[in-house]
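Researcher: Going back to the complex we discussed earlier. I've cleaned up the inputs and rechecked each line, so this should be the final set. Can you rerun the prediction on the complete assembly and write out the structure?
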Amino acid sequence: MSDFLDRSEATLDLKVVGTRPVRPDGADKVTGRATFGADFAMPGMLVGKIKRSPHAHAAIVSIDTRKARALAGVKAVVTAADFPDLASEAYEAGEGAANLRDLSLNCMARGKALYDGHAVAAVAATSSVIADAALDMIEVTYEVLAHVIDVEDAMAPDAPLLHAHLFTEGLEAKPDKPSNIAQRNRLTRGDLEAGFAMADVVLEARYTTAAVHQGYIEPHACVAAFGADGQCQVWSSSQGQFMVRTYCAKLLGLESSDIRVTPAEIGGGFGGKTTVYLEPVALALSRLAGAPVKMVMSREEVFRATGPTSGAVIEVKLGARADGTLVAADVVLKYQAGAFPGSPVGAGSMTALACYDVPNFRVTGFDVVTNSPKVAAYRAPGAPIAAFGIESAIDELALKLGMDPLALRMKNAVRDGVKAAYGPTFRNIGYVETLEAIQNHPHYTAPLEPGQGRGVAVGFWFNIGGESTAAVNVGEDGTAVVVTGNPDIGGSRAAMAMMAAEVLGLPIEKVRPIVADTAAIGFSMLTGGSRTTFATGMAVTQAAQKIVVDLKRRAAQIWEVGADQVDWIDGAAVCLDASKTHPDLTLAALAARSARTGGPIGAQVSLTAQGAGPGFAAHICDVEVDRETGHVTILRYTAAQDVGRAIHPAYVEGQIQGGVAQGIGWALNEEYIFDRDGRMENAGFLDYRMPVASDLPMIEPILIEVANPRHPFGAKGVGEAPIVPPLAAVANAVRAAIGVRMTGLPLSPPKIRAAIDAR
Amino acid sequence: MTRTHISATVNGDPVEFLSDAGATLLDALRDELGLTGSKEGCGSGDCGACSVIVDGRLVCSCLMLAAEAEGRRIETIEGMADGSVLHPLQRKFLEHAALQCGFCTPGLLVAAKALLDANPDPTESETRYWLAGNLCRCTGYDKVIRAVMDAAAELRQVRV
Amino acid sequence: MSELSYLAPTAAEEAAAALAAGGNLARALSGGTDLLVQLRAGRVKPGLIVDLKRVAGAIGIREENGGFVIGAATPGVMVGEHRGLARAWPGVVEALELIGSTQIQSRASLGGNLCNASPAADSVPAMVAARATCVIVGPSGRRTMAVEAIGVAPGRTCLTAGEFVLEIALPTRAARSADAYLRSIPRTEMDIAVAGAGVNLTLDPEGVIVDARVALGAVGPTVMLARDAAAALEGARLDEGALARLDEAARAACIPIGDKRGTAEFRTRIAGVLARRATVIAYARAKERG
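Model: Rerun complete. Updated structure for the full complex:
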């Protein structure tokens, strides 16, 4: 199924893939016409709002909604009593399995509020003002409990317990007491003790990161309409309309076929919109009210009550020989999960050593519940945190050994044929190429002034495949529409059209992509895991290839020759039979004759894509530090990444630049700050400080193309690897600039100044 | 609650609408006038997704009361193109792939237009500082800055 | 549900009467860059908003008796465009222009910044160092006060019911005088000052500082005039010794809190650094005017 890569590189002559056409949703987005979650309206629509716990940890003694329900203009009030009490069950509908009971309780608290901002009730009313007044009228009696947020505090044996029935999984013996440690995972290889015994140099260090948010500019929003006949419509800004459908069905006890979810344009997700918060609540309200309900989060609600990623502790012990060969590594990761189990510590554990060929290691990960919002995926979930620790330690090791940091990484680099730390054997990877690319880049040797420093770091992300469905339909005039079920968060719909256009031999302007609702296209796993261009692209390509086979058959029928006497070249059927003199039949010509050659021209493919190629990245960062104020300026940034094949190079560059920017924010200034009562103090864009335009320089991406032979065009996922190296790249640069190792993120000015003063 | 009657000019056209005293100009644009191009990203003037131009000045519409719009001349993203002919800034954003999710794009375009009206030849630094009030989480700003400066260059040629 | 009303009077006395009648449910509106944020967050729940922007004299800049009179609701962008003001008081202008984004600059004003009474307000240390005064209009008439007397506690002013600030006056500029303002923020833009320093100097023909005013922001419950820091400069040329004494005196004047924006130690340290750096800039500017 890899027609294009079966041919040698010399004959590979791509006309569309690899070019930079204007995105198909572009005109709507630059004119303000594109419809995002909050832009949609239905007649008779009500406003839905949520009442949230002001306590980080409390028993909910009672909820009295009578006054609220009696207020004129209020059409529905719900609490957990209006949702089925689900059993604990792991279910795969998002990115990885979610526990349905936990998901339900996160959407609407039952018996206990587990974080400040936890939803305890919701109302639907005829106006925003009335909805707010109704919320004030809901009387909730709480019994405030001691809370715990810091991950190590939560692991302590005497910590306040979030869940009475949570027993640590993954230990050798099942514990007899519940704890906040939901799970311990462990990856091992070789003999750790023997490994360290061989080391000439041992480095031990402890690193910490704070919880950060994906920071998408669009707050969560949806409109839900529960019909009188039980058929539901949901309009929602999410990373997966099928995920929304499944979760709504499960949480409300409905059939999937009774819910039709239409994906709105989505204003950023980065993993944070791979789950539901509002949709089941909006449907529950709509059912009671008998009218559509619109729910839009405020920015404060987004911070307090959606899914940031973990704050964490990373403990690293590395052993190396004097020549830089790594002989042993012992890594401990402690990740906050928030109110319910499910931090990305597993993925953090698997990726921590992925760039290194280490013969003896042990990686231990702890998933720890805390009285903070339940964490959700954030771009390469778990990996940036682990990489911050590993890449800082490797940098320190290079200094100890007197080795160039890139040379140290090159010495221990994984290559084709090496068994990855997380299991499979690497094939067709481009990691070494990314190291070479930055080593040879002028940035690496550009001179630096006093007060400036340079850091390098590398990173890895698996990228996934998964289930996708795509349909390609040819119109009567020979143009085509590509239908998929993946919300477009990075430009994927353009890539879908490009791949179909390439196969069909059409110019890109004649192939239009749409992202369809759950009733109009077959199932697709959500947009995440850097999977869409790979997996859905594979389905699109196969569907287009099926059409080409069918077109050749039709031409053969018209020409009365054997099917093997027809080729498809540049968008037309070509007769290979030298004895005949048939002119080529274009797609348009064949489409015009479809009725007599077999009917409408189109194909749909459903598949589970295997063979996703992992992404490796290597970054260089230059900083300048004002020693008196602690202010860090990012002077220059270069990011090399193995992208397989860049279907649309500008969008691949954009993914790299965006991921780098998020990583820089994570390194410098972003963090959740909680007060003594466990309330977030900086739940807004003023004091949750994301990079603004003047904080960043141009970000230079280097696209390395080591093709993935398992994808028809050689593509690998690109969206997530870019955020993995920057945390350590920045920290390593700061170390070079001020001579002090910063082991805790973010590197805010007060901490830098204090570190300089402490020397 | 009594609602106030407001008359203003939006994208060159006279408009009238009713608003609650506490409603913002952003609320009025989106909910009363159906102009949903301006977005709410934060409601506190920190993200710029709601940017519009009032009497020639770039403002956050979430920080203006709808009542303050009385008699004012307001320009939103919906008025930037000339019919179906895109403004050079809009074209350059598309050419340079200066948008991904597109949510911050209307605010950025309005802000960039205000920049080029005030300063037709901005440096990279001037462009970055002018746009510091427009948060983008997808692009890292690189292609946005390039698009704005390229549009500025094109507009300067047209003027000459 | 409380009713909210909006008024946009055109005469100052009318505005004062409306504010007085509204009592503590009334709020004055200038650029709205503080009030609307507080309204949206539910931190204030006014019954009446009195928009000052249409009041005669509230917006505009005029030269008077060698000094400047600035309408309290004049947006930063207008202040920045006034050449004469920028030449005479670059510190006041740059302080106001540091507030927020371009969008905020179209609305944020000296009067609003002053009366919101945040100890971290950027324009206030510069106004205090400049010896700015303000004209207050109230139900019982008008009075003039020094700007540093307005803020009495975080978020509180000395204004009584019905009073609002109509104008801010900057005095006549002596020869060889200049001011400067610097603040420290974590990013390059958009943040509230973690510390701020406004410095205003007058030099004699030999370059000796004969008059100094140093005001510090975000290091106490209000913007503070640091008299000892100014005294450390007076009578001196700008040498390392004077700057070191200034740094020490500035730090000694600080009584900051530690909060989500910075620790108390950091704020104090930075106040000294900023006072020094702002002094260097003000001195260079003053010399140019010699």
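Model: Worth noting: The two ends of chain B are 54 Å apart (CA to CA).
Researcher: Good, that matches what I expected from the previous run.
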